[in-house]
Amino acid sequence: MLSNAFLIAIKEIRRNILRSILTILGIVIGVASVIGMVMIGDGTTANVTEGIKKLGTNMLTLRVGQERRGPPRSDNTARYFDEADMEALKYEIQNVSGVSAEDDTNINVIYGNKSYASEVVGANNDFFQVKNWELDKGRLFEESELNAGKSVCILGTTVIKQIFEGANPIGEKIRLKSFSCTVIGTLKSKGAAAFGRDQDDIIVAPLGMYQRKVKGNKNIRTIILSINNSKNIEKAKKDITALMRERRNIGIDEDDNFHIRDMQDLLSTMTSTTETLTYLLGSIAAISLLVGGIGIMNIMLVSVTERTREIGTRLAIGAMENEVLLQFLVEAVVLSTLGGLIGIALGLGIGFGAVSMMQLPFIINHEIIIIAFVFSTLIGVVFGYFPARKAARLNPIDALRYE
């Protein structure tokens, strides 16, 4: 009986092909919207996650002043950190594998007749380990260069492209402000950060040289630390807080005049936010599936009216109510399922095009595809039941008299 109802449904769909296409259009758009939206959201989530991981997921950032909302900034009333604080953090806190200052200034870099504004960072060799940054060519700073604050620097790939047009800059001298600096190394590219900032637009110099020739003072606003294992981060944060309170003579009843930012917390927050937005957009798109279901119900009601005499004939020659109900219900389900399949293909195409244009990772969410397909099929059952029930309950005599 079910196979016979399926064959009749296919026959009716083929007989009114244009109306069938218009009937499933709402389902197609609904399913395609859901899948496309979720693909863009998943791609954005993956992109943000990857961007934060590039910064170093086991990294802690210690900044001067109390934590405030908005972009990173320092509290001018709080005492700055110094190199003795860095030494204490490195040798007195367990599970710390790297400590570096991270102070930066945007200045013009000059090489020959070329000039380019870039970010100059004062740091030590632990900076590269904390930031998960690999050397491409050349070498890191020697201990003597760090101690003496020599004018040497390591360049990011964007600076190399802008100043040296991709040529090997090792051994060349660039001018920063009024002094020259010898390039001793280059970094591998890290690409854009989570918020689109170009991480490769950077020049790293010894902290002593940066403080003396660029900044003009020894104030350290930010210290970055890497923890050897993510399981030890919470303990390390407590130990760092205790050490800093002691070194900065903060009383028991006084608030901290520094704060610690945890990249794991940032990663969790950003991932949770983008996932919430993804499901919000997907839920909004799913509303069009309900609209598509109402469209199916309307067309099926019209179909029942048009085929009233056919239904009356079937009932008159002995067809059971359940057989008529099943016939129209199967027809509605076939229509909605067909719409779901076309919508999945269209949604994948739209999603692929969108993430390619936005340069996001292409991620197929199999769970959402299955949910969208099952939901489109259920819509056929729910919205097809009322027209099918109406057809099954027709009086055969009234149906045969229907003009």
Describe this structure in words.
The chain is α+β, with helices and mostly antiparallel strands and 403 residues long. It folds into two domains: 1-51 and 268-401, no CATH class; 100-226, no CATH class. It is built from 13 helices and eleven strands. The strands form two sheets. A six-stranded mixed β-barrel has the order 3-4-9-6-8-7. A four-stranded antiparallel sheet has the order 2-10-1-11. A hairpin with a 2-residue loop joins strand 7 and strand 8 (179-187). Helix 2 packs across helix 11 and helix 11 (321-357) packs antiparallel against helix 12 (366-392). The longest helix has 44 residues, at 263-306. It is elongated, with a radius of gyration of 33 Å.
Uncertain runs are none
Gyration radius, in Å: 33 Å
The end-to-end distance, rounded to whole angstroms, is 29 Å
The overall average pLDDT, rounded, is: 84
Tally of DSSP helical segments? 13
Domain ABC3 transporter permease C-terminal: 283-396
Protein name: ABC transporter, permease protein, MacB family
Family: Belongs to the ABC-4 integral membrane protein family.
GO molecular function: transmembrane transporter activity
